[in-house]
# Entry
Amino acid sequence: PLPGAISPASDPDFETGCLARRVSARVDFPVSRNYSPRSGTRRHPPRVRWLSEGRAAGSHGCVGHPLPASAMLNVTTRGWSVSLPELPEHTHVYRNHLLNSTHWDLFVPRDDDIIICSAYSAGSTWVQTIVATLVFRQENLPAPVMELSPWVDRYSHGGSVEALTAMLDDQNHRRILESHVPLNALRFFPQCKYIVVARDGRDVFMSLWARSRNYSAVALERLRAAGEELGEPWPARPDDLEAFWAQWLTESSVAWESDGYLYGSMFQHVASWWPYRELPNVLLVHYRDLMEDLESQVERIAAFLEIPVRPGRLPGLLPGISFAAMSDKAEDILGVHAQDWRGGAESFFARDSVGAWSAALDPEALRLFDAALTRNLEPEAASWLQGGEAPSARN
# Structure
């Protein structure tokens, strides 16, 4: 039997349904079953075609990707035993001045799409730049990163969501998309690759603090216009860092979160992905790991995306995708979105270092953070969020 995937018995072609997740799978097993998972031989591999809620969602190869028991549903039908991944459910909608998760409702996936997911100010722009460099296999990209890799669930795109989807349909390269909503607000596509980026929440806050005070007149007008549509004005932000910190950790814009006011709970973003971190199309990447060992992290990302990198090629790419290069290339990364920041494109990366919070927050303030961390995350997830390092041997 294939490890953690399929055990052939008598019937080589069947369908089975799983009511718990409204998921069905069709397993196509070729006549020749000569497959050796231990030696890595991949002759005539089986394929699983996922059907979610009656809609074809593409194909997902089980070979080489045994799924963990913790994420499986075991189903036996007509003599076959199949382990089906328990797919994430779309249960929440985020719609505020910054976010609109319903934009994903019109999204039509391709089998090789890459979706980069993070909480607000957690490092997604850096990873988008890395991934775009790998996809195009060059440092000089054909367009700004923010245009090549649009933020799909952004509330306002300066046009209709239909225009956004049309633009995505016209892209003829491997698509790279960005999201800032938790997994439970996304439609999950097993054929797409998800890179989940996280960062120590204290560093996230320092970045949010800087950016909340750096909105340009253009950005503020867009936020005011969103407020008129929502019937809720864009609120004034506290001028005091400690007041902003307390509000961020104790207030929420939605009933099912207890923190992350306006920007969404960073803790709940991680919590939504954590149970699915070992699915073969999910990769968790930590900001600190990128800072401390960029080369090995880029190798991880390239391997996950199945993008071959010629021996000796990666060291030549690293200077152009390092953290230091982000400010130097800020205009090339942000493009037209540079107008959203009063200090220009370079100011977007001004407070994205590691550890700046230690000089700004006292022990009493940090106790609020510890309480939110404990309230939202299990110990292993909390430890990874603060310290980094790969959470799974598979990754």
